[in-house]
Structures are given as structure tokens and as C-alpha cells.
Amino acid sequence: MIRNMSHNSFALLQARGYKLTEPRRRVIEQLHDRRRALTALELHQLLASEGISLASIYRTLELLVELGLAEAATRSGDEQRYIACSPGQHHHHIVCSRCGRVADITECLLEPFEDVVRERTGFTIESHTLEFHGYCSACRQ
Ligand SMILES: [Zn+2]
Ligand SMILES: [Zn+2]
Ligand SMILES: [Zn+2]
User: Fold this and answer.
1) Which of 10, 21, 73, 133 could form a disulfide with 81 if both were Cys (CB 3.0 to 4.6 A apart)?
2) Residue ranges in the chain whose pLDDT is less than 70
3) Ligand 1: centre distance to CA 19 (Å)
């Protein structure tokens, strides 16, 4: 399952004309397999023994965000953290404030709220973002 999600990202990257380089492959795998929001520095520490530079991790993250394969989590004052994501199916994330664990929330209950926003503002709505923060079951103990 997790493996498949990495593979979907690999396929999408290549479909968009990007080579699956070692840094790209490893950053995608780390973000998917750990199911945690990670900073570029944390990724660098995890991948340092593989000779992947911090600069190439930054470049890779930028590309993944651009392609919708990663998302920059809302900053909580410190370093920017990144979440593995898959474009397509609309969903939201919940992120543990302590360990960075991420879960996807695949149901979106905001459509009625969008109607209210549309009515009140006269805007058309193209998209919305919503991120939940809290403590995972392991961190709550
Ligand atoms: Zn996602
Ligand atoms: Zn946690
Ligand atoms: Zn939504």
C-alpha cells in the first residue's frame, strides 16, 4: 500500500517528463514510508549516508510541491515541514504537533460551507485548504 503510493508518485513524476533520479526517488520514499511531516534538514539526516546533498533535497522538495506530490505543511514557527501527497482525490491532512505523524482525511465535509462562502462573498470558489493539528495517539500518552 505504502509502496504503491510511492510508485504512483514515481509514475506521475515521469509522466510529467522528469527523470526519477536517486534524490527524487529517496525523498518520495522517505516522505511516504515514514508518514510524517519532515523538514529538509531531517530528510538530509536520513539520507546523508547515501550522499544526497541538502541542496538537492531542497530542489527536490520544490519540484514535488510544484507537481502536487508533496505539500508544505503550515508552519508552526519553526522550520518548514513537508508531507507526502497525491494529487487527484481531494483530501485534507492532520499533522501531529509533536512527532509530525500525518494522516489523510479523505472525506471533505466543506461543500455546504463553500455554498455559504459563495453566497456571502459573491466569489466563485476554485479550491480550499484545511489542515488539522493535534497529537497522535502515541504522543498523547
Ligand atoms: Zn495529501
Ligand atoms: Zn505524534
Ligand atoms: Zn476539502
Assistant:
1) 73
2) 1-4, 76-77
3) 22
Residue by residue, DSSP assigns 96-137 as ETTT-BEEEE-----HHHHHHHHHHH---------EEEE--H
- Per residue in 85-100, pLDDT (tens digit) is 988 889 999 999 999 9
For 10, which DSSP code? H
Note the ligand closest to the C-alpha atom of 109. 3
What CATH fold (topology level) applies to the domain 2-140? Arc Repressor Mutant, subunit A (1.10.10)
Ligand 2 is a single-atom ion; what residues have CB below 5 A from it? 96, 98-99, 101, 136, 139
